[in-house]
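Example record for the data management plan.
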Amino acid sequence: MSTPTPSAAPATAARPAGRGRNLELPEHLKAYKGVWVFIEHDRGHVHSVSWELLGEARKLADTLGSSVGAVILGGDDEALEKFAAEAFTMGADKAYVMHDPVLKGYRNEPFTKGLTDLVNKHQPEILLLGATSMGRDLAGSVATTLLTGLTADCTELKIDPVSRALAATRPTFGGSLLCTIMTLAYRPQMATVRPRVMAMPQIDATRSGEITQETLGMVETQIVTKLLDFIADANSQQVNLPYADVIVSGGKGLKNPDNFKLVFELARVLGGEVGATRPCVQAGWVEAERQVGQTGKTVRPKLYIAAGISGAIQHRVGMEASDVIVAINTDPNAPIFEFAHYGIVGNAMQVLPALTQAFAGHFANHRRQAA
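Corresponding structural encoding:
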């Protein structure tokens, strides 16, 4: 006797993943045009990631045939127009400047209102922010307020040739894969990018642009948080990986923390910084500030020496934009040799001291000749 099966919907009723979702841009959002960059500044200085993003925005806008806008929010006494003039030399066509006492020093509420008000009024197609502490905090709240998509920590930004949507690529699944995300049915399309991922644009001192002054219309009593004081981090300059010209990094192929000291010795001779992979940081060989990769720092030095590093995607996304990459590994099939400019197949514990000695001798000879 057969056993009755539970009632179920016909197989034809099952919908494939994604079916029924709105992937068409509504008519009222088709009016959104232009690529905007939020210009992050603090204590009179613009964060370099904002200039890097302007370079990318210029490329995106040229592909779309649109303009580049720079958004600059700050206090009444801050030199926002000076930042706007710099933005024009980096590729911006327009600058939207908003002065207000409540915008002196970053706080989420007034900055979120200021940026969302500007987006709703001027309707940019794309909005880019740096993946800094400020940028990450602001981007999430602005995207939520605008009910739009946000792709965080991107490593590449392009325009999809078919949909003309922003194709934002970022690592996923713990850094084992790279995925490209597009926001098809909402505007603006938002993305954050970490410092040093994109190249700094060429400065064109002859460029100028249009400055539009805007108002916030918010009073201090409407804001929950209060900025009481600024306390500088006394240790902030100890490790400055993202802006080092020379970096010597070590991986678990160095076997133990004693061998890792060879990395420090070579870096000292070269006048560079020391980097490391995540396993080395997790093992306690070096501090977290030295980690290079998806969950660490993104770097763009002139010279990157990788010793005992296999070259997994988690590490690669943080250093592959280096001008010259030299890899040292005992495994000739290590992934890092696929993108390194120069490869040394050998034991890093032997190669590193040899390099240190050779460079020390070279610099000593150079000093003698100069004297």
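Summary line stored alongside the record: The chain has a mean pLDDT of 90.
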